[in-house]
Structure formats: C-alpha cells, structure tokens
C-alpha cells in the first residue's frame, strides 16, 4: 500500500487566552457574505490548541494546524507565532 501524506488544515488567528498550562485559545475570524442583503458579516470560532513550551501571550497572531485528538476539546497544535503582541 502506498503512503499518502495527508495535508493538514491550518488556521491563522489571535490568542484570546493562555491561562492554562501548555494550552491556548485561538479565535479565528472570517468574513461571510449575507445571502439576502449582500453585507459582509464577521464570524468567529474559538479553537483550543496545544502550546507545549508556553510561548504565546494574549494578542499574539499565530498559525495552528490540525492534529490527532490530544484531549476532549484540543485537536489543534501551535505551528508558529506570526506576530507577537505589543505590550
């Protein structure tokens, strides 16, 4: 059987919380066009992501990638920090 490498999904978002150990909450926003009125609406989803070294702070813009289930709600892993928050 040939090896087929799956392409993992990635998302870019803002860190909302880092109060847990080795975990962060990332809010990913997207713009969706309203079906009837045509106005663009912001929709957001929060993902729990694994941050093993506790590098992220609130306000950082990060890239996360899909992985195997790590806990009940954690299915994403921190890939890299794109931009650090200004303190």
Automatic annotation (TrEMBL):
Give any Gene Ontology cellular component. Answer: cytosolic small ribosomal subunit
- Functional summary from the UniProt entry: One of the primary rRNA binding proteins, it binds specifically to the 5'-end of 16S ribosomal RNA.
Assembly and interaction partners: Part of the 30S ribosomal subunit.
Molecular function GO terms recorded: rRNA binding; structural constituent of ribosome
Q: Which GO terms describe its biological process?
A: translation
InterPro entries in alphabetical order: NA-bd_OB-fold, Ribosomal_uS17, Ribosomal_uS17_bact/chlr, Ribosomal_uS17_CS
Source organism phylogeny: Bacteria, Pseudomonadati, Thermodesulfobacteriota, Desulfobulbia, Desulfobulbales
- Please indicate which superkingdom the organism of origin belongs to: Bacteria
Q: Which UniProt keywords apply?
A: Ribonucleoprotein, Ribosomal protein, RNA-binding, rRNA-binding
The question of whether Magnesium is a record keyword is answered with: no
User: Family per UniProt?
Assistant: Belongs to the universal ribosomal protein uS17 family.
Which PANTHER family does this UniProt record tie to the protein? 40S RIBOSOMAL PROTEIN S11 FAMILY MEMBER, SMALL RIBOSOMAL SUBUNIT PROTEIN US17M
- Designated name of the protein: Small ribosomal subunit protein uS17
């Amino acid at each position: 059987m040939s090896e087929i490498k799956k392409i993992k999904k990635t998302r870019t978002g803002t860190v909302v919380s880092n109060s847990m150990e080795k975990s962060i909450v990332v809010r990913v926003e997207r713009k969706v066009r309203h079906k009837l009125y045509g106005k663009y609406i912001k929709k957001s989803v929060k993902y729990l992501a694994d941050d093993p070294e506790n590098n992220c702070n609130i306000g950082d813009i990060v890239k996360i990638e899909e992985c195997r289930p790590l806990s009940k709600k954690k299915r994403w892993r921190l890939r890299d920090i794109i931009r650090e928050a200004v303190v």
